[in-house]
Design brief:
Chain lengths: 465, 102
Amino acid sequence: MSANLSAIFYLVSGVLFILALRGLSSPETSRQGNLFGILGMIIAITVTFVSIGNFSFGFIYVLIFLLVGGLVGTFIAYKIPMTAMPELVAGFHSFVGLAAVFVAISAFLSPQAFNLGSPGDIKLASLIEMSIGAVIGAITFSGSIIAFLKLRGIMSGSPITFKGQHYINLLLGLSILVLIFYLCKTQSDSTFWRIIGISFLLGILLIIPIGGADMPVVISMLNSYSGWAAAGIGFTLENSALIITGALVGSSGAILSYIMCKGMNRSFFNVIMGGFGGTDQTSPSKNKDQKPVKIGNAEDAAFLMKNASSVIIVPGYGMAVAQAQHALREMVDTLKKNGIKVSYAIHPVAGRMPGHMNVLLAEANVPYDEVFELEEINNDFANTDVAFVIGANDVTNPAAKTDPQSPIYGMPVLDVEKCKSVLFVKRSLSPGYAGVDNELFYRDNTLMLFADAKKMTEEIIKNFN
Amino acid sequence: MEIDPFIFRLSIFILSIFIGYYVVWSVTPSLHTPLMSVTNAISSVIIVGAIIAGSSGDVENIFNTSSIFGFLAIFLAAINIFGGFLVTQRMLQMYKKNNKNK
């Protein structure tokens, strides 16, 4: 196949990828969009096979690795529980990053296979491009591994900080730049390995200071990085499908990071610097014991909701941890049978990744037109009888509106306190990830239900009858 | 003077960033998780580079250092492609509208 013809096919697959993302503008078109994406991928892979032509013996191994990887991927895709999506996405990011590093290494070792020159005499532009791809890929890889470990709970979610952290990162970043410059002059293998090694280290150091509650931003950011890494490799390989995809994914991740930061009213820079959450949890929790809290049980909750005419459910990360989404749907079904109007309110940063709550509710067969975003539903709380807050905390804290001293001041919150009564399903009175006490707990119209989210919901269902 | 082909690739890149910007802003927030998993899948189109790398060995030496890295990259990217698209499809199939009750 001529180079021009294959370039046109790569362009076609790039366009199909654009359509894949475009389809996600509504759930109805999204499935078709995904098929466009698959088609684009098939075209890209087929064109690559055809354009290589003389495969000799390597071909069979290419196929074997492709199929084994495909089987592993298929297995994961069908086995993974929806609550584990944040970890899965972080894991997938790390694979993209590492694949970018491997392709860059391969291109560096045998540039002739990619028409980039010969070993030790690689075109200057290609050398810069592959270094950029390798650096961003390596940072994506090791950063995503840390994010994965934190999300999986293998590593503590609390931020790891030490003195001079940011200077060390800056120093590492600068040394990467110097080494790339040096690499361009000498084309030495050892320099290339050093660049990759330092980038791995930098990826780890960039993510460890960021706390568990900021994971939505981290995942989005790594999503963006994986795109830029792919684009860097795309420039090296002079492949428009990769360049287009890299740019799409890069900007997608950047926009998601922006939305997440806005949902927390924090600047991107502030999140990256890390150290937020989990540090000063002791000070606000000391004086809370004096304040009275109304504690209820499943019977009270069932009574309140049965006598309401409208209920808004506010799910949070606690619902995901307890896997309470199915029980919750059952509870809502019973309420709806009794003629009670029920809707769901989702805060942009609820959960551990963008859109996490929506997927869990969809899994539990909650129709997506009953699920509303913050701006859509926030005015409805004033006309609602009961807010049922299940596993959420900081996103309902009125201190964000009233207390300029609060660390979460200015963050958009759900106005649950405007409801006639508020039910809080929570394990304990402990503050949320922001380490801020929630004054809502101590209000007269708030009833605290201390239990595991799933068990409590099941109890409430029993008490309906 | 002839224009370096790099400039054309750069143009594609910059314009694609803008396309990505507008397309992603139109994605509904409830589909942000599938958006991430599908971007994962499509960025694994990096497999085209991995395939070239994997087939760079010759008859006597199929497994040279460079092709081994290629094979590993094929493996990783293939996990992502199949896993990414299929898990996205699985998620999207769960999004249903409420037709019957209303």
